[in-house]
Design brief:
Helix content: 40-55%
Number of strands: 38
Radius of gyration: 42 Å
Strand order of the largest sheet: 29-30-32-33-34-35-36-37
Structural class: alpha/beta
Largest sheet: 8 strands, mixed, barrel
Amino acid sequence: MFRRFMPHILVVVALLTVGLSGGHELLSQALVDLRFRLDNRPASGEIAVVAIDPRSIEAIGVWPWPRTQYAHLLEQLQRAGVRDVAFDVDFSTPSDAAGDQAFLNALQNARSSVVLPVFRQLDAAGKETAIHLNRPLPQFEQLAWSAFVNIEVARDGRVRSYAFGENDETGGAKTYLQSMGAFLAGSDAVKHSSFLVDYGIDPSSLPRVSYVDVVRGDAAALARLKDKRVIVGATAIELGDYYSVPNGRVLPGVMLQALAAESIIQHRTLLSTSTTATMAGLLLIVIIMLASWRQLSAARRALLIAMISVLIEAAALLLHDRYALVLDTSLLQIALVAYLAATALDEIGFRGLLRHVAESRFERIAMSIGDGLVCTDRDRRITVWNPGAVAIFGYGADEIIGQPFARLRADGSDTHDLFPQQEAALPATLLPGGSTIEFDGRRKDGEVFPVEASFSAWQGADGLQYGVILRDISVRKREAERIRYLAEHDTLTALINRNTLQSELAAMIETADAASDRVALLVIGLDAFQRINDMLGHAFGDSVLRAAAERLRTEIGNMGRVARLSGDEFAVAIPCSAIGGTVAELADHLSQLFEAPLDAGTRQQRVKVTLGVAVHPEGGHSADELLSNAHLALCRAKMDRPGSHVLFESAIRRELEQRLTLEAELALAVERNEFELFYQPQVELLNGRVIGAEALIRWRHPTRGLVPPGDFIPVVNTSHLSEAVATWVMATACRQARQWQLAGHDIRVGVNLSPSQFQSGDLAAFVSKLLTSTGLSPRLLELEVTEDILLHDEPGVLQTFNRLQALGVSLVFDDFGTGYASLSYLKKFPLDGLKIDRSFVRDVLTQADDAAIVGSTVSLSKQLGLSVIAEGIENEATAEFLLRLGCEQGQGYHFGKPMPATDFERRFLVAGDADRRQAGAA
């Protein structure tokens, strides 16, 4: 029973595979393209093309042309007596005033209908994937019709379908716009669907005249256009408006519009039949094959399949020609091909074919794989030896087949420990392979090398068989050793690296504790090494580092370990019992060691070193602590005693304790509400009107009074308090802005974001909840970000920014120009504006470089659609100069220092209300 239905099952499986994978689409398109070639027809002659061809471009001049050209063309077309005129040329941006006026006059005087293009394109701002609708200039659109000209390109890169029209949702209202092809065809149907263009219509039969002939008033050209619907567009290759179409042709966009119009005029808007027709056809084929499979011989069955195939295509061609219907016959033809293959398989013998295919496949795989493949009989004598095994061991197949597998082992020992020992429980099929093992093999030339082998066993026709996959892993072993070396050593100096030092230092400490010894760690920094890199180049700097490493390694020898920690820092770890003196004497000795110049390549270079020293146990109980304290001592030495050494002591850590004390006081300040927000005005430079305020945190200490921000902000930003303080600042600023909004003052409040707000929690959700709870309008909240935030997690920050902008909140880049990648961030992130750092504004009147930077920044921002505010404006002259550069907003002491909210209200809001009342009374 199963054998009887096997061919039909194979056909169904083939159809499911092809249908689900979409592999039939190429065949479907090829068959439709073939029908286009068989069902060729001429154009109706109602549509004519005025071509902007190479001859026109050569005669008129470099593209784009002034609009006076189109005005003159339109006048000539009116003289020719055309019915309609469609322009496939962009009229969405202003040209010179005279040209625009000339074209406007031509439109006013036109007696025939004129249609101008509307097209969708990516937003010019380049943000995300927003689509912008380009329409003709309003003065042109009032005197002409509008039509869509967008052309849909299929997945295979060819244009196959064309839309009747689309909805225009500009301004919130839906308006149906025809496509240009529908307009030219005179169709008034409101359809949102697409149709297949009939490429059987010969594009060369479309009446076509050169643009330059029409403009020059050539009588023959004008006569060809009389009573025609005319479309004007580019056909010159250099203008790039070309598309791939079926049957390997490439057509300009204006010809595609004309062919679409011809398809409508000739009622050749091709439509695809439903899948029901295809499924019915497949069912009919299966029924015919089921009924005839055993009644017909293989030859007659093949003839029947061929006849059905021809009949199907004849029917599809008839539907295409008479009824403009496209029948997808690809799956039908695939089913027939599958039945033809099944016929051949049935004739050959399916099981025998499968066995032959399996054997051939195994042979091809065995002989082509790069690994060694060896098969043996139950006595472990070699029966199969592929080229991979020849390459590994050097033996030819004639030398090794029939030999015991033990010959491949370096020691020639028995192989019972290698092969699976499961013969007693062998099933009739493949046994699971033994575990992958390694052993030493011997090549034909006697070389011993490591081999990795995977064993398996199965019951074959000749009894138990074994299979072995062999790999020469000598290269892998060497690479593993190299990787281990690279993981533990510095590649430039061949010294151990920081990770290895920490491991060996921990072991050294453990040994010292057991022997009541001490361990000294000296961190050595090369002074002014960056200057060497800058002046003499990094290659020479590398030579200096190698020479310094070699000098330390030679001096320390086996007494301790020398490591390279980072760019210009080295470390020496040594038991104190091996020093032969005090740690201070060793430090002095190492300093004096570098008084002699280093041999760095072709020249000698003098360098000085500074050392930080920590001694276990008083300088640290663990490797990490000892390394940390030695670094602290090095930092202190570089600040206080460069060129010498400093031994770590508790006083060095006192600064850290002071910081911890300050953090504790700040934590209390959060609990006691000792923080306040001051507000600095942001104004329009043109009229001095206050439009916003930046919220700045201040700390009113109970005993020290108002603490300057520079004394505590750096500590806050790097402590666990950062998120709590930043949350309080944003919530307080939003509540204050809402109070001003309720009082009738739309003051935009700027809040500085902290990196911690991106590292924990959901910032966008918090802002949304805060806006809801306070009732503040999102447009009155401006969040300021700095480069250190953008560097944290670009994908995560970008997602947060998109969500914040969706809420209606503005995002501004603060301290612009002071980082390393500000320009790239303007492209990557959805920003609304930027703030020019005060370092550029301060000397803008006296420093030409600063003025150039500010001017370029303002110009760039305007091109990107970003607002700009300048910080640090200290006088009226600076404000006026910035205004002349195009900067419209400013902030600085000239307008007002940061002040409490009550003072801000009294100075800028209440006073402003009074001024407006006086102006109203006057």
